[in-house]
Amino acid sequence: MTENVYITLKERGFIYQTTDDTALEALLGREKVTCYIGFDATADSLHIGSLVPIMALVHMQKAGHRPIVLLGGGTTMVGDPSGKTEMRQMLSPEQIQLYGEKIKAQFSRYLDFSNGKALLLNNAEWLLPLNYIEFLRDVGVHFSVNRMLSTESVKRRLETGLSFIEFNYMLLQAYDFYVLARDYHCILQMGGQDQWGNIVMGSDLTRRKLNLQVYGMTFPLITTASGEKFGKTAGNAIWLDAKKTPVVDFYQYFRNVDDRDVEKYLGLFTLLPMEEVRRLPKENINRAKEILAYEVTKLCHGKESAELAYQSMVSQFGPADPEKRIQTSSDIPEPKEAVLPTVRISPKRFDEKVWVVSLFVEAGLCSSRGEARRLIQQGGAYLNGEPVKDPNLELSAEILRKQGVVLSAGKKRHKRVVME
Fold first, then answer.
1. What CATH number is given to the structural domain containing 302?
2. Residues contacting 163, CB < 8 A, separation 6+
3. Rounded Cα gap, residues 142 and 157, in angstroms
4. pLDDT tens-digit profile of 366-406?
5. Do residues 17 and 139 share a domain?
6. Are 333 and 377 in a shared domain?
């Protein structure tokens, strides 16, 4: 029998609070349920801050439950005040639709949507056609303004200013839970701890209107050991879209996390057994960081990209303590296999810009410039783990002098190129 997913989530650090710990644990161990998490379409990609809710849905599905990913095509037009110090920029319906389509595509990496095993819905379907007067009479009558003002997300914003449109957000999210419970028998809503007030309101509304017992669960706010916000480096967000955050940079973010965060992140962001999650950092912290970075990159970008990113980092900085081998169920390459052959080119032969086609020839990965062009056009050429799409691409000689690059022809032929 599959382990109770409540225990799995608790053990791995996902659960901050629930509306009823005992009842929810019993329910998830007794029967399969439908759960949901909402994602507003405020950008053309999710960032790694969304990995906590995404991984919670992954664990729910692995345990046989049915997750619903709810795109906020309607709620994005209002803007969630939770966790914000000021009102979000209002987006046009066209922007929201475009962002929603891009976010949809990202979820296929994490969840199996075949045969109804998971659902991807958009709350614009039921929110946009609402008649405001009917909505107030049908839904607004169940809400106490005093209680709404007492929620943490609203209280914080009252100090800096809360618009009336944002104040309505709680009603709309509560209505989402009611619709999903009514039409899809969804009885569990999950979200970040800043969503607690919204989730409780939605649970109350659903129970009143449907006479149905439903539940809420929140995840803890993830911060680094130094107290900084998780998911940013040098002030920039780490995106799940490789066009916004290159795979090598994505890998490197997790490879460079604080030693104190490794066990926590292994539990949250990988599917490794908890025995390994606890053991690996104690046996070899640097190898544990490599495994963390590799596993998260594989989850978000695929195995091939994870291996290329790993090889790129190892070629530049060497493997982590190769003499200290540790047993792991991860398919990360062994340290001894990670050192790439290095090709050194003379700066006298190139100006400040180096043509990528010439580099593939210099590296011995192609016998001629024509072959290198064809490799690029066929999608088989990679630079630091990223596909080379432009055969006219030129690289800065400064990059080659400082750190070099990793070139790949297909999946198995890799060379590191440096300028000396």
1. 1.10.240.10
2. 87
3. 23
4. 999 999 999 999 988 988 777 888 989 888 777 777 667 88
5. yes
6. no
